[in-house]
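Researcher: I'm preparing a figure for a lab meeting and need a structural model of a single chain. I don't have an experimental structure, so a prediction will have to do for now. The sequence is pasted below. Please return the structure as tokens so I can convert it later.
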Amino acid sequence: MRNLILSGLLALGLADAASAQQTDPQTNQDPTARDASIEFGGPDPVRIVTARGDEYEIMAEIAATPAQMERGLMWREAVEPGSGMLFHYEPAQPASMWMRHTLVDLDIVYIDPAGVVVKIIAYAQAESLRSLSSDATVAGVLELGAGQAIEMGLRPGDIVHHPFFDTVEVEAAALDDAPAAEESADEAQ
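Model: Understood. Here is the structure written out token by token.
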């Protein structure tokens, strides 16, 4: 019966072979097990600049290995304001998250390779098995405590600065557009 249920979940994309009784080859343990000891990178500063010009800094743990990405924020009882976890996808790809064994609601911010926010899922429900898709190719996913994205006023199009992203190119394009925008504003007056 368990295999039939697991097969159904796999077909729906709600589970994958990696989380279905797989173990981390380096530690020989299931990274999603409550007692698994998974070391994360960071914390690293992640700077977010909104379209309004507001800037925020998040101190993010880094999930870049398969075991770290599988574990994520599972079993955490809180995510403090100003902190989170940054998942790195190399190469960039469509991503999908779920909240299995996640004890707190989260905000999920999908980020493209240029560092541009492409999608935000606010208040992802703790313990949900629903697949939360990026609907785009992403190089990163930033998970925050529920409500932080709304408090910061994050929107698709905002810029995330971290070495994982090509934000230098995005900034250069914005600077190149700035004189044209100023000229348009001057002409309108």
